[in-house]
Amino acid sequence: MSAPIRARFPGVADVLPDLAPVSARPLPVTPAWTLAALAVAFVTYRHRNI
Known about the structure:
Elements: H1 5-8, H2 26-48
């Protein structure tokens, strides 16, 4: 079984989406995750409808 991302990369734990609202810099992290999710959804949607 693989280790969680937090255990492998402790430096990025505060930018993961579950901890972003309580991290030291929530303002840039939360919109970044939202935009990344929307981009993935857009690419997937476009790929399925072509």
